[in-house]
Amino acid sequence: MDKGTFIVVSAPSGTGKSSICKRFLQAYPEIQFSVSYTTRLPRPGEVNGKDYFFISREEFQKRRKQGDFAESAENYGNLYGTSIRAMKESLAKGTTVLLDIEPRGAKKIKENFRGGAFVFILPPSREELLKRLEGRGHESAEIIRARYDRAESELKEISWYDYVIFNDDLETAVHQLSSIYIAQRCKRSKLQTKIKKFMNK
After folding, report:
1. Domains and CATH numbers, the chain
2. Is 31 helix (H, G, I), strand (E, B) or coil?
3. Predicted structure pTM score
4. Residue 20 in contact with residue 177, Cβ under 8 Å?
5. What's the distance, CA 148 to chain centroid?
6. Are 96 and 181 in contact (CB under 8 A)?
7. 102: which residues sit within 8 A by CB, 6+ positions away?
């Protein structure tokens, strides 16, 4: 069996990344979403093991020290990490894995795993980004400003990503991400077993 591949999606807060990923996964149920570990508390409606693995800060630090994470980072006082074991097992099975992680974590994945597609999602404009952040309604002006400043910093990482999607329209953005996935599946390097079987007939 040919090894699987992965798609890493990153974006500043307020870009609509979660909505795009959710619709994308609904369209392609064969894709496995990489469930991250986090030390933050669950939000209403979130399910342990589906949205995140919610663990204590002590447990997280223990796992990180043991080398359990392919990448890990701290955001707004909470720790997040991707299981290196789960990642390797999924790829070995030939599965496509979708990772929703920020640029620092994405860069670590790029260092630890070959191949894959790295996608950065942007809003139509900086003004629209600020508008979306302010429209959330449940965060203070201080947190909104911190998220916007963080977004400005993350924008500098675009240069090493493979693809950029502007989220002007949700349906279009999902279609573009789907096109990247289909292109990944058609790479010669991902079809060696089928090609060999075909050539030997």
Report:
1. 6-35+94-199 (3.40.50.300)
2. coil
3. 0.89
4. yes
5. 19
6. yes
7. 10, 73, 75, 80, 154
pLDDT one-digit tens code per residue, 22-67: 999 999 999 999 999 999 999 899 999 999 999 999 999 999 999 9
Q: Is the dihedral of CA 97, 179, 47, 74 positive or negative?
A: positive
Cβ 131 vs Cβ 148: under 8 Å = no
Pairing of strands 6-10, 97-100: parallel
Contact at 8 Å (CB) between 41 and 142?
no
CB neighbour list of residue 167: distance below 8 Å, 6 or more residues apart: 11, 15, 16, 17, 20, 121, 122, 123, 124, 173
The DSSP code for 42 is P
List pLDDT tens digits, range 82-127. Answer: 999 999 999 999 999 999 999 999 999 999 898 899 999 999 888 8
- Round to whole Å and give the CA distance between 21 and 36: 14
Tell me the residue length of the chain: 201
Helix 17-27 to helix 170-185 angle (10° resolution) is 50
Q: How many CA atoms lie within 13 A of 50 on its CB side?
A: 7
**Rounded Cα distance, 143 and 126, in Å:** 17
